[in-house]
Structure prediction request, 80 residues.
Amino acid sequence: MAEDATPEEIAQRIVAAIPNSTVTESHGDGHHFRVTVVSDAFEGVSRIDRHRLINEVFAGELGGRIHALSISCLTPEESK
Prediction:
């Protein structure tokens, strides 16, 4: 059985996949997580495509090791 994911792991993986991003909120219980990601990479990108970028980081784990991931994706301007 795979180890539980941690909020720190979730944040680190997002930052590694989306350079210059900041995970401003990350918490969870090992299976359910909530994150807010701020990045210039989201400029001009639809909300659904922003979520797809994050979901791709965890492909194959969502619904399994990571049961639920609530995502908020913002540009730096939107985060003000």
